[in-house]
Amino acid sequence: MSPISTLPVRRVEALPPGDAPEVTRADAWMLRIPAVDRLLRRGLDLGRVTVLVGENGSGKSTIVEAVAMAYGLGAEGGSVHARHTTAVSESSLHARVRLVRGVSGGRWGYFLRAETMHGLYTYLRDIGPPPRDRNDRSARLHELSHGESFLEVLRTRFTRPGLYVLDEPEAALSFRTSLAALAHLTELAADGGQLLIATHSPVLAALPGARILELDEGGWTERAWDELALVREQQGFLADPERFLRHLRHP
After folding, report:
1. How far is CA 216 from the centre of its chain?
2. What is the C-alpha separation between 112 and 167, in angstroms, rounded?
3. Backbone angles phi, psi at 160, to 5 degrees
4. Residue 20 domain flag
5. Among the residues of 74-143, which ranges form H helices?
6. Who's near 47: CB < 8 A, 6+ residues apart?
7. Pairing of β 219-223 and β 211-216
């Protein structure tokens, strides 16, 4: 018998056909993505830390967005209480899946995505700091650098057990701030947080104990960190940049 899971979300799976919305022309692009197709056919089991990697267009952001929204988080980021929006651009995948929750897994969560951080910061400024943290710098997030503001959100919002979804957070981070984020997320997972991350960063993909899924033509393949294309390619470039640059130059 499998042990009882206390994770906020232990599995993502398709709704029964009669409960899912009809497929429209607007949905066609999404259903052609191998990772989305596999999710809807076979489901996706989540661990304490699940990391999705893969090329642009492989479906990473589409999947993490859908999980966040199905959990009750806003498409543009924030906590389970956030309801701000600037432009509707999300797919309908969230309406086609259901989340299988763990026992006593809690309901708290937070969604942070690189492309909508500016709107989230404006929202946080307008609602003011949480009562428990009067040192919160939410009103000043626009004044901080991109990386500093990201770390401030981690410090003040990623603080307790719950589901934390991050979509390509490395867009805000230098190498050193990536390490700072890695340290915070590692501690959060150890303290009971559940992480679902879409990333191109080999640093963030190195989260201890992470289940790493490399999205590909078959949907995804579970890999060790040092087997990932993004790790091997960046290691190769750093070892010999000129070899890569020769292929990029015009004849």
Report:
1. 17
2. 6
3. -150, 170
4. yes
5. 117-127
6. 7, 209, 210, 211
7. antiparallel
Distinct helix (H) and strand (E) counts, the chain: 8, 10
Selection from 74, 117, 91, 106 nearest residue 32 by Cα:
91
Give the number of domains in the chain.
1
| CATH number of the domain bearing residue 167 | 3.40.50
Question: What pTM value is reported for the model?
Answer: 0.89
Residue 165: strand pairing partners? 111, 196
Q: pLDDT tens across 139-193, in order?
A: 576 666 767 888 888 888 899 999 999 999 998 889 999 999 999 999 999 999 9
3-state helix, strand, coil in the chain (%, to 5): 45, 20, 40
Residue 75 has pLDDT above 70, yes or no: yes
Note whether 129 and 139 are within 8 A (CB): yes
- From residue 239, alpha-carbon distances to 7, 67, 127, 145, 215 in Å are 40, 37, 48, 30, 26
Q: Is residue 199 part of a domain?
A: yes
What is residue 129's three-state secondary structure? Answer: coil
Residue that is written with structure tokens 């004849």 in the block: 251
Question: Rounded to whole angstroms, how far apart are CA atoms 32 and 46?
Answer: 23
Q: Closest Cα partner for 103 from 192, 9, 6? A: 6
Tell me the CA distances in angstroms from 192 to 8, 47, 183, one per residue in order: 10, 12, 15
Its domain, for residue 240, covers 11-248
Q: Specify if 91 maps to a domain.
A: yes
